[in-house]
Task: inverse folding
């Protein structure tokens, strides 16, 4: 097999809105109640995917989930038209765009059965996100249905919180080689909840048949969670042999670094010190919620949001690093402001899957021509702008449902209409 890293981005759904539902996500809470622009948000995501393709990266997509989630409301004895506003906002959330929370992925070289394992995240901490796992599972079972190469697991029981790849990192000499998997969990987040439970992380490692000697469990620092790093990927990101992190990302940093050095001979740790980039600046700018990737030309590249360029301390650090001999050799800046306003940067929008593209359902893989088709549907059917008070307006609800149905039909995935 020809194993490659494929980035699967969530297409921003037509109900994209700012309801401020994510307690502990500073950006989400800050923009609660503001008007949103679903069309612009989705086209920004498309532009980011085009930029990845231009770098020579493999690119996939996940589709918006059914919204409103009528089944969830029915189980609560109500409908989207009659629900209390808070319930309606949860049922209309477009949060599945953040594909980093879709699942945890262990590539075939790491698993004892030599299959790529994916466990759907239960996202049990937040009501609007706990709705996602069934629809996510439906897509994964289609996209990765080749049982000779993939093993799909349902979510961990909700007694233990699991938020997917946003709290998981992998180190290896190359993506297709055997690697070390790092599961990051929280214990306490001060005023904010710790969303990833160590019990869930350990269960996933067992289900994925990982070698305990190649598996690390690391505690996220309480300071980072309290500052708004609701997921580890807000303060750390890994790629191949490089771990890029803020000084205050982990509770026991030295032990983690030592464990990585013992297991990954070429390991490089790139730290951003708090004296250079204060933790608050790192969280606001999403310096670490970037895609750290290796294009075919071998130049490790950091794909950053424009907010990082606009933050003086962050951009100063970037310029100094690029001028030196560090492993990150190139920076690409993308505009995902609409997603950022809801607390999701470039890394949140994608799930990394190391696999042979030939084993993936081609309807979930994209090139520029397919993105042209997707963009045309978005420009024609996605709402341009709406106010938070419109979430329960019947004409808006009908517009959202028609837009998604049109996209599914265009991509030949109408089987997901009710999933």
Result:
């Amino acid at each position: 097999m020809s194993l490659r890293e494929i980035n699967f981005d969530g297409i921003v759904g037509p109900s994209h809105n700012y309801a401020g539902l994510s307690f502990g996500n500073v950006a989400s809470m800050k923009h609660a109640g503001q008007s949103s622009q679903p069309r612009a948000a989705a086209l920004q995501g498309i532009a980011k995917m085009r930029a990845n393709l231009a770098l020579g990266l493999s690119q996939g997509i996940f589709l918006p989930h059914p919204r409103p989630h009528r089944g969830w409301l029915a189980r609560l004895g109500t409908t989207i038209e009659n629900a209390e506003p808070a319930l309606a906002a949860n049922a209309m959330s477009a949060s599945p765009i953040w594909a980093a929370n879709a699942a945890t992925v262990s590539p075939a070289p790491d698993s004892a059965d030599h299959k790529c394992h994916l466990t759907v995240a239960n996202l049990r901490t937040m009501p609007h996100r706990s709705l996602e796992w069934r629809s996510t599972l439906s897509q994964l079972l289609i996209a990765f249905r080749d049982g000779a190469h993939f093993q799909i697991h349902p979510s961990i029981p909700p007694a233990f919180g699991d938020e997917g790849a946003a709290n998981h990192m992998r180190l290896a000499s190359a993506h297709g080689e055997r690697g070390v998997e790092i599961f990051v969990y929280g214990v306490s987040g001060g005023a904010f909840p710790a969303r990833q439970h160590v019990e869930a992380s350990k269960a996933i490692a067992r289900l994925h048949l990982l070698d305990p000697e190649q598996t690390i469990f690391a505690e996220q620092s309480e300071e980072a969670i309290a500052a708004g790093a609701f997921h580890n990927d807000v303060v750390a990101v890994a790629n191949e042999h490089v771990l890029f992190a803020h000084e205050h990302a982990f509770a026991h940093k030295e032990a983690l670094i030592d464990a990585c050095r013992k297991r990954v001979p070429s390991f490089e740790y790139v730290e951003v010190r708090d004296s250079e980039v204060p933790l608050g600046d790192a969280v606001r700018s999403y310096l670490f919620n970037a895609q750290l990737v290796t294009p075919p030309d071998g130049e490790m590249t950091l794909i950053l949001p424009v907010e990082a360029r606009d933050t003086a301390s962050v951009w100063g650090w970037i310029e100094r690093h690029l001028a030196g001999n560090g492993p990150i050799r190139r920076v690409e800046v993308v505009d995902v402001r609409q997603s950022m306003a809801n607390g999701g940067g470039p890394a949140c929008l994608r799930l990394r899957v190391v696999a042979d593209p030939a084993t993936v359902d081609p309807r979930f893989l994209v090139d520029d021509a397919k993105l042209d088709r997707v963009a045309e549907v978005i420009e024609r059917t996605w709402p341009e702008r709406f106010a938070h008070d419109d979430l329960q307006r019947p004409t808006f609800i009908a517009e959202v449902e028609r837009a998604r149905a049109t996209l599914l039909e265009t991509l030949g995935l109408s089987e997901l209409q009710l999933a």
Summary: The chain has a mean pLDDT of 94. Residues 38-54 form the longest helix (17 residues). The CA atoms of residues 103 and 164 lie 4 Å apart. The first strand starts at residue 4 and ends at 10.
